[in-house]
Amino acid sequence: MSHRSFSFYKRMVFILCLLPALLLLEGVLNDRLGSNPIEALVRQSGDWTLRFLFITLSISPLRKLTGQSYWIRLRRMLGLYTFFYASLHVSLYIGLDKFLYWDEIVEDIFERPFITIGLLSFLLLIPLAVTSTQKMIRRLGKNWLRLHRMIYLISITAVLHFYMMVKADTQEPWIYIFILTLLLAFRLPLPIKIPLPWRKGS
Amino acid sequence: MLIKRPSDIASSEITSEAVYKDRRRFLQQMIGLSVAASLGGYLSPVQAAYGGKPLTYSKAKEFQLDEKLTPYKDVTSYNNFYEFSTSKQAPARMAHTLKPTPWNISVEGACAKPGNYALEDLLKPQALEERIYRLRCVEGWSMAIPWVGLPLASMLKRFEPTSDAKYVLFETLYDTEQFPNQRGRVLDWPYVEGLTIAEAMNPLTLMAVGLYGEVLPNQNGAPMRLVVPWKYGFKSIKSIAKIRFVEKMPTSSWMKASSREYGFYANVNPQVSHPRWSQKRERRIGEWGRRETLMFNGYAEQVAHLYSGMDLKKNF
Ligand code: HEM
After folding, report:
1. Which chain B residues have a beta carbon less than 8 Å from that of A104?
2. pLDDT category, A201, cuts 50, 70, 90?
3. Domains of chain B: which residue ranges?
4. Touching check for B275 and chain A: CB below 8 Å?
5. Is the model's pLDDT at B23 over the cut of 50?
6. Tens digit of pLDDT for each residue in A39-76?
7. CA A110 to chain centroid
8. I need a labelling partner for B312 at 20 to 30 A (CA). Which of A173, A174, A181, B227 fits?
9. Tens digits of residue pLDDT in A102-134
10. Which of B73, B282, B283, B293 to mutate to test the interface with A (most CBs of A within 10 A)?
11. B59-307: what CATH class?
């Protein structure tokens, strides 16, 4: 792919990733989020955080499967979008759901394990976002990769947060657990080499 | 205030006594007639199946509420009704599979008059009344709803519970055709709830058959549901098919699902936090901010005596 057409696609992806947030905004403005819009906002932003986390994690499997390296050039943007939706989710929780009642927020963090685990996931995302620049990648050298492997841990705690949050119906979290298992299994070294005919050189 | 209290205007002030008395008698007869008519109409399957049919009732003077009512649309489109779905938006869409008529209630256990009663027979001798109650969900949201129903005590007394009746157990209909999500194992079906006999006989406890002056929409628990306003919403069991007087404390469906989280009493209490939700404050549906949650949901005066000397942290 030429450099020009790639940067066009990248821009398209950028706009596409913004759509869920814009749809949420539209939902608020047009009163389309149902009877409890705050609950809908917190939940849907949480859902999108997890989805973007998974999309980010599927980049390197996609590269392996297709043999195309341009996937990697989308990864930083997708990772930062994950952080963007996580920040939105947390802000909505603090600002709207808890309406800045810090006594409740503190109680939640210390007494409700699903919140504790959620917060842990969010806090661990911060150093990854901060070190996502070209400059930081160069500066950290080998340590950059080590640091960013933390995303595997974050993906597990994030899914755990969802699983623990659910009251009785764990079907949806189990779907996420299944997908995460596949995504993580991709990282394991394969005992045999599987030929992919569409891949150059394999 | 949306609903005028009857005491706001005394008709006798503006009408001569004789005319007033005459008119009152006439109105009473009218109400009597239309109650009978509406109960007859209540049985018409097509209308009753989707709720919305007007009911005739009087406004219970002591049970009004000086708070803005939660709009009808929200009351009927945001429902925890796991027999249909765990989504609160879904029941309004799905509840057409429920057929609330004809409906029978099996009355069992420690009483002199057990039996299988048709719903209309249970309702016929009673005049319906409207009461506006707060509804507080354990998930931290609340509503103010004008229910139409009758005091549970008046219904239960007719079955003549014996001295062995220490508790009342209620069960929702179990029918996977009408309640598709009962095929899944989200909860241990049928849904079971219970009250102590004193709680059941408390004047606040209502057996509701309508809201906003109309027959209960299916998603709100047609044709008959409990309303226990000082307890978290899940105690107010919907679509009741069985009432049993028992000696031992019943185990409710939510107690079975997680006894650490849900106790038998489930009284609204801002001082006792729940493992999932702080119960200090709540969000009234339609508002953005948070309200302070009131002890016993604001009904302490009527019910606190039921729990005097009880450790409410242990008996949550
Ligand atoms: C990377 C970090 C996080 C991810 C991926 C995430 C993801 C999710 C997901 C998927 C849900 C369920 C949504 C649904 O039911 O549809 C959820 C719910 C929730 N999250 Fe998070 N979350 C994260 C961090 C946090 C943090 C830091 C907090 C608070 C401090 C938080 C508070 C909540 C709350 C309160 C709910 C439940 C809302 C409700 O009960 O309606 N989350 N989150």
Report:
1. 278, 280-281
2. low
3. 59-307
4. yes
5. no
6. 999 999 999 999 999 999 999 999 989 988 889 999 99
7. 24
8. B227
9. 999 999 999 999 999 999 999 999 999 999 999
10. B283
11. alpha beta
Contacts of A38 in chain B (CB under 8 A): 283, 288
- Stated pTM of the model: 0.86
Cβ–Cβ contact B73 with A under 8 A: yes
| Per-residue tokens: A18 | 């913004």
Say if residues A52 and A17 touch (Cβ distance below 8 Å): yes
Q: Whose CA is closest to A122, among A144, A149, A153?
A: A153
Residues of chain A with Cβ-Cβ distance to B289 below 8 Å are 99
Confidence of residue A198 (pLDDT cuts 50, 70, 90): confident
- H helix runs in B119-273, sequence order: 119-123, 152-157, 197-201, 253-257
Closest-CA residue of B relative to A167 is: B276
Q: What is the C-alpha separation between B270 and B293, in angstroms, rounded?
A: 6
Q: Do A167 and B187 touch (CB under 8 A)?
A: no
Torsion angles phi and psi, residue B134, rounded to 5:
-75, 145
Dist. CA B205–CA B197, nearest whole Å: 11
